[in-house]
TrEMBL record:
Pfam family, one: TrkA_C
Coiled-coil annotated residue ranges, if any: none
SUPFAM superfamilies associated with the record: TrkA C-terminal domain-like (SSF116726), Winged helix' DNA-binding domain (SSF46785)
Classification via PANTHER family: MANNOSYL-D-GLYCERATE TRANSPORT/METABOLISM SYSTEM REPRESSOR MNGR-RELATED, MANNOSYL-D-GLYCERATE TRANSPORT_METABOLISM SYSTEM REPRESSOR MNGR-RELATED
Keywords: DNA-binding, Transcription, Transcription regulation
Entries under InterPro entries matching the protein: Bact_HTH_transcr_reg, RCK_C, RCK_C_sf, Tscrpt_reg_HTH_GntR, WH-like_DNA-bd_sf, WH_DNA-bd_sf
Gene3D superfamilies assigned: Regulator of K+ conductance, C-terminal domain, Winged helix-like DNA-binding domain superfamily/Winged helix DNA-binding domain
Lineage: superkingdom: Bacteria
PROSITE patterns from the UniProt entry: HTH_GNTR, RCK_C
Domain RCK C-terminal: 120-205
DNA-binding recorded as keyword: yes
Domain called HTH gntR-type: residue spans: 6-74
Record's protein name: GntR family transcriptional regulator
Amino acid sequence: MPKIKEPRYHKIAQDIAEAIVNKKFEVGQKLHARSTLAATFGVSAETARKAISVLADLDIVKAVHGSGVEVLSRKKAVEFLAQAKESRNLQETNSEIKKMIAEQKQGLLALDQSFSLLLDQTQRVSQQNPMSPFEFIPKADSSKLNQSIGSLNVWQNTGATIVAILHGDDLILSPGPYANILPGDTIYFIGSDKTVEAMQQFFDSSTTD
């Protein structure tokens, strides 16, 4: 994230104002020529000129032609420094908010990528195991119980292919059309998601009173 950089001349203007506040430069005192100020603060004469212009616009100093710069107001120097500090605080707050937003976006992006990966893995597992069976336990009062798979026409009515029946501790694989579905049995079948709903409706549609 790009950092907001304060102009060099503005920083020099603050340094001069701070010297006035600390009474290093007294009100009414004539400061050195701009070229001397430039050398003092290690900047170009143009940077020093811009810094003096900032202070002159705020009536903190006055450039006197031929005799340097005169200090006008310590109070206004104090106000200028306070305003500059508030401005820096706002900029820092702005930068911090932008940083937080950027981090939040990165977090959301990572979450989105993780979710996409999970979805992709789920789809691949589903493709690799298309015959994973569903399980269903009919209600105890279902009228379809104590009848054979063939007589119920389960596949014709629901689209489900029964691959196993768990009766107590006995698991009957590939039960065939003559196997009866008894109370408490767990039915294992393959089909689509719609088949699950169809099985529930089929076994629960005609329950005994």
